[in-house]
Amino acid sequence: MSYQNCRTGCIVLKNVDFGESDKIITLYSPDIGRFAAIAKGAKRSKKRFVNKLEEFSLLDISYRPARHDRLHFLSEAELKEAFLSLRTNCQRYCTAMLASELVLRFTREHDPDRRIFSLLHWLLESLHHGASPLPTVVFFHLHLLDACGYRPKLEHCAICSYLPDNKRGLSSFTLQPSNGTLICSRCSGNTGRSRFTLSLQSLKFLQTAQGMTIKQMHRLQMPENIASECLSVLYSYSKYLLQCDIHSWSFLLKITGKQK
Ligand SMILES: [Zn+2]
């Protein structure tokens, strides 16, 4: 790898103070994937990095690649978009934090995926322009799972191949976290609800969202209560896959008043 300065576009996922004057910034770039860089003097800099390294900022950076597993060295950062409204609106902020945490947890370092970058960029831009936070993050979460190889298989019941519709009167389905497949309530013999239960209505929205591209997403009018149910199941599925908690989730629940 060359140790000359390189340039890339990226989004700030995380920003932590390091020592007296430095910061360690975790970024996601379409060219590099997730990576961490040290911004020397960033806590004191009045010019070079001021107000540029905040979470969710879209940057064009110049950096020196890491030597021997150390951190990349951030030389310069040009702020392309700050998405300022995400910092002044609590629900937008918590939603963007959840999306950032999902990218942090689901991706590996130096494993770039342009689709993940585009999804995150789309989410930040949509929230900034006033899109409804819960449906936006449902779409993001669903497509992030897909990009990371964990696409839930929502087409039909994995046992009886029953296609979810209104005709047979089945009203709920369970997502099996171990393999991402769906089981209808008749096959599971379980009429009670669990963390993985989806109503027919929520399932239909998820199926539609799964078949849509980012550009088509504005057509999906997902009611808040449906978005909340979908997100709750996606959260439980992700928690199972990651085998760890997703901290931003509890903040989002608190501010949307859905904490049980
Ligand atoms: Zn079935």
Beta content comes to 15-25%
Q: Write out the CATH superfamily name of the largest domain.
A: Recombination protein O, C-terminal domain
By CATH, the architecture of the largest domain is named Up-down Bundle
Number of helices: 8
Secondary-structure element series: EEEEEHHHHEEEHEHHH
Structural class label: alpha+beta
Number of domains: 2
Number of strands: 9
Q: What fold name goes in the CATH topology slot of the largest domain?
A: de novo design (two linked rop proteins)
Instruction: Kindly state the percentage of residues in helix.
Output: 25-40%
Bound molecules: zinc ion
> What is the mean pLDDT?
91
The shape, in one word, is elongated
Major β-sheet annotation: 5 strands, mixed, barrel
Separation of the first and last Cα atoms: 51 Å
Low-pLDDT segments, ≥5 res: none
Q: Assign the CATH class of the largest domain.
A: Mainly Alpha
Describe the structure.
By secondary structure, this protein is an alpha+beta fold. It folds into two domains: 6-82, OB fold (Dihydrolipoamide Acetyltransferase, E2P), CATH 2.40.50.140; 96-256, Recombination protein O, C-terminal domain (de novo design (two linked rop proteins), Up-down Bundle), CATH 1.20.1440.120. Helix content is 37%, strand content 24%. It is built from eight helices and nine strands. The protein has helices at residues 85-88, 90-106, 114-128, 133-147, 185-188, 200-210, 224-242, 247-256, and strands at 6-18, 22-29, 33-39, 58-64, 72-81, 153-157, 172-176, 181-184, 197-199. The strands form two sheets. The chain has a five-stranded mixed β-barrel with strand order 1-2-3-5-4. β7 and β8 form a beta hairpin. α4 runs parallel beside α7 (224-242). The longest helix has 19 residues, at 224-242. The termini are far apart. Bound molecules: zinc ion (ZN). The site of zinc ion has 7 residues, from α5.
